[in-house]
Amino acid sequence: MLAHNRRLIEHFRTNGAPEGRPLLLLTTTGRRSGERRTSPMMYIRDGDRLLVVASNAGADRDPMWYLNLVSDPRVHVEIGTESYEATAVPLEGDDRAEAFARIVAGYPFFADHQAKVRRQIPVVELVPA
Fold first, then answer.
1. Which of 2, 50, 55, 117 has fewest C-beta within 10 Å?
2. How do the domains of the chain map onto residue ranges?
């Protein structure tokens, strides 16, 4: 997976996002190492908000990038030709539930991911700094 992500990141930075789902690059700071880690991921526009979903393809554990941003919410976002610093804010309560319902309406596979796990899949807003 790491080799695939490296190729995807290189392609993104050289040629832009590949066709298909909307893709961004999210750079977090490793909670243990302190090193910057970049992860390609799908994003969702929700009105004026930019959201990412920590589904980890329906795995039992949250993805590492999510654990990193919980530890340090300062992130770097690359989307299209834009590149900017942001703060990652996990949605909570009704806001998370309503946003997740809208996400599932557009991308039903996220419901499949949630059905596989006991954890509540986090939804994170990326707020420009």
1. 2
2. 2-128
d(CA 20, CA 125): 21
Rounded distance between C-alpha atoms, residue 110 and residue 15, angstroms: 28
- The reply to whether the predicted model has a pTM over 0.85 is yes
The model's pLDDT over 92-109, given as tens digits with 9 standing for 90+, comes to 999 999 999 999 999 999
What are the pLDDT digits (tens) for 43-62? 999 999 999 999 999 999 99
Q: Phi-psi region for residue 80, left (φ > 0), alpha (ψ -120 to 50) or beta?
A: left
Rg (C-alpha) for the chain, rounded Å, is 14
- What is the side-by-side strand order in the sheet with 82-90? 36-42, 23-29, 74-79, 82-90, 123-128, 49-53, 44-46
The CATH number of the domain covering residues in 2-128: 2.30.110.10
Q: What is the pLDDT of residues 1-25, one digit of tens each?
A: 678 778 877 877 777 777 777 999 9
Strand 49-53 and strand 44-46: pairing? antiparallel
